[in-house]
């Protein structure tokens, strides 16, 4: 049976205070209880143990033999509980659990996270990646990098960067099948993740309103990182955020064939629970990442 079902734990706290202070009145003042409430708790504990714990004399109380035996163990127990709570708080303050989309984590965050840890060496970052949106109410998470519109109830969100999209491919693949001269020419090449709704939106904006993508095998790699890797290997044309792959584009490993960026209104945001806005580790990470994006926190 659990101890909480055997012993009145609140009464033990009152007993420790009364024994330490040698006064029902001062114990009540320390614990925020009336003298009547203190007396009740002591009586409850004495009934539970079956022995009196204090000798009540005029203007003086002293511990009985039973009380003398009980006090050191109770004091030790509360000291251990206090140490456990302090340790738990310290561990909580030292570990920042950060959720991020895989692409943002790989292409932006991990390349800069060392700067944050250099500034805040006392905070360890535990990075969790996945396309699923974390629920702060039911899951362990301090902060998240999300893509969307930023209007999540109960959360504070800060805009980080636009999530634009455009086709990319390897320069070698672009030279095949007569080259890429107009947007419709992309349809001569394999499209990576053709079921991605970004494709239809981009082709419509490019003046190709009916690209007939439904006839293609609906492969879907799930995240931009895999799509871009396949495109870099010459496996087809991917549609991603070119800003994530600026280094590969500059180095000639990838090519953006047309100067047309689209955006569906969903961008990258930093999000955290509103009721934890003043937690130091969350504020530290927020201030750092917004500074990286030259954004002033609200």
UniProtKB/TrEMBL annotation:
UniProt keyword terms in alphabetical order: DNA-binding, Transcription, Transcription regulation
Gene Ontology MF: a single term: sequence-specific DNA binding
HTH lysR-type domain boundaries: 7-64
Entries under PROSITE patterns matching the protein: HTH_LYSR
GO biological process: DNA-templated transcription
Family membership noted in the UniProt record: Belongs to the LysR transcriptional regulatory family.
Its job: Transcriptional regulator of the ttuABCDE tartrate utilization operon.
Protein name: HTH-type transcriptional regulator TtuA
């Amino acid at each position: 049976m659990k101890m909480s079902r055997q012993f009145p734990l609140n009464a033990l706290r009152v007993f420790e205070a009364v024994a330490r202070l040698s006064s029902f009145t001062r114990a009540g003042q320390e614990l925020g209880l009336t003298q009547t409430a203190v007396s009740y708790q002591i009586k409850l504990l004495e009934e539970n143990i079956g022995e009196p714990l204090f000798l009540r004399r005029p203007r003086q109380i002293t511990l009985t033999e039973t009380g003398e035996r009980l006090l050191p163990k109770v004091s030790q127990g509360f000291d251990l509980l206090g140490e456990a709570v302090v340790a738990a708080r310290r561990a909580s303050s030292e570990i920042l659990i950060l959720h991020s989309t895989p692409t943002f984590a790989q292409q932006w965050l991990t390349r800069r996270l060392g700067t944050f840890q250099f500034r805040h060496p006392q905070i360890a970052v535990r990075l969790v990646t996945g396309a699923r949106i974390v629920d702060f109410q039911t899951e362990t998470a301090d902060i998240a990098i999300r893509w969307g519109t930023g209007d999540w109830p109960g959360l504070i969100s800060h805009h980080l960067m636009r999530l634009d999209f455009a086709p990319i491919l390897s320069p070698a693949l672009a030279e095949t099948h007569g080259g890429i001269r107009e947007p419709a020419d992309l349809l001569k090449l394999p499209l990576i993740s053709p079921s991605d709704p970004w494709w239809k939106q981009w082709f419509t904006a490019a003046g190709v309103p009916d690209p007939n993508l439904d006839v293609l095998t609906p492969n879907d790699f799930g995240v931009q990182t895999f799509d871009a890797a396949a495109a870099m290997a010459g496996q087809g044309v991917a549609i991603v955020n070119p800003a994530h792959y600026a280094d590969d584009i500059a180095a000639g490993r990838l090519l953006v064939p047309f100067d047309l960026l689209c955006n569906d209104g969903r961008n990258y945001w930093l999000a955290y629970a509103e009721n934890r806005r003043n937690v130091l580790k969350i504020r530290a990470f927020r201030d750092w990442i917004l500074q990286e994006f030259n954004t002033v926190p609200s």
